[in-house]
Amino acid sequence: EAEAPSANWMDKGTAFGIEGSLLFRSGWRIDLGGSYGYSVNPGKTGLAGTGSGGYLEPGDIPTYRAVASQQSNAFLAYVAGSYYFKVPSAPSLKPYVGLKVLGSYAHNWKNYDEMNSMGTSVTESLAVGASAVLGVDYFLSRNFYIGASVDAVRYVYSYTALRPQEGLGALSANSHNIGALAAPILKLGFVF
After folding, report:
1. Are 152 and 132 contacting, i.e. CB atoms less than 8 angstroms apart?
2. What is the 3-class SS of 59-85, one letter each residue?
3. Neighbours of 76 (CB within 10 A)
4. Per-residue pLDDT tens over the stretch 113-123
5. Residues with Cβ < 8 Å from 92, sequence gap 6 or more?
6. What is the DSSP letter of 9?
7. What is the pTM of this model?
8. Number of C-beta neighbours around residue 191 at 10 A
9. What is the per-residue pLDDT across 81-109, written as a single tens digit (0 to 9) for each?
10. What is the pLDDT of residues 21-56, one digit of tens each?
């Protein structure tokens, strides 16, 4: 009963990450970046009701199923190459275009503390993709800038495998995702 975590960062909401860049005088830039997400939800043992024979009489308390313990991890890493264009009338404004290649992995397990539970279920998802990036950086000083970028066109291939219980083979699925104007990013940058 594990939920399939998405390794496709197009499916994510607001996220924070880190990026390091090498800027060259020729106008080229190479970026390495990534992000990590972790969540854990504690479980709760189910509560037996007071009804008998599967029927509830007035005043009986129904049986409540256990809440599953669940844990999820997700990783994203990318490398990108971009080229800055010069704007003679605004030298602090640096528009750029580039290409980004990314990979991500997500893992989720879920376990119910119940007599009829069939063990821990596990889901894993892997995604790889590429995108054409459009962006702009504005240098407020020589060592400090703000910026924004968007993946103008993006393709992501995802593979997901679900093992519904221990000892069973994986159920798997593939997906292909194409997006436009995806993954808008706001940046605050420091140059060293």
Report:
1. yes
2. CCCCCECCECEEEEEEEEEEEEEEEEC
3. 21
4. 666 666 778 88
5. 138, 139, 140
6. G
7. 0.73
8. 11
9. 999 999 999 989 999 999 999 999 988 88
10. 888 888 899 999 988 888 888 887 777 777 776 677
